[in-house]
Amino acid sequence: MAESTLTKVGNSAAAFIPRALREKAGVDVGDSFAMESPRQGVVVLRFHRPTSASKLRKLELAERRIKALAEGLPAWDEGLTADQLIREGKEMRSHEVLPS
User: Fold this and answer.
1) Predicted confidence (pLDDT) per residue in 27-63, tens digit
2) Bridge partners, 95 (sequence order)
3) Which of 10, 27, 74, 82 is most buried, taking the most CB atoms under 10 A from its CB?
4) Is 26 a residue whose pLDDT tops 70?
5) Which residues, 6+ apart, have CB-to-CB distance to 17 below 8 Å?
6) pTM of the model
């Protein structure tokens, strides 16, 4: 049995689920769940298992976002190292004017 302490977070409260228990339950940060209290002192969390269709939909949306981002990027010369690409990107951004 894992133990945690209820912690105040703004106007709400949070309980931290230890990694070992998350791994045993097959859940992770970002997973959605429903909760209920069948009786005093008991809170039940029911994590939603994503379907293959919802996983595919998320991948398709991510692919569209990546493609849209890539369309605005200039092509780079062949043979550049990752360090060179990062340095060039930083230099390009250093000339951008940030909104005030």
Assistant:
1) 888 888 999 999 999 999 999 877 777 788 888 999 9
2) none
3) 27
4) yes
5) 2, 4, 27
6) 0.46
d(CA 36, CA 49): 17
- Write a three-state SS string for 28-58: CCCCCEEEEEEECCEEEEEECCCCHHHHHHH
Tokens representing 45 are 């969390």
Q: Are 35 and 45 in contact (CB under 8 A)?
A: yes
Q: What is the pLDDT of residue 42?
A: 94
State the sign of the Cα–Cα–Cα–Cα dihedral 49, 52, 57, 60: positive
List of long-range contacts for 5-13, beta carbons under 8 Å, 24+ apart: none
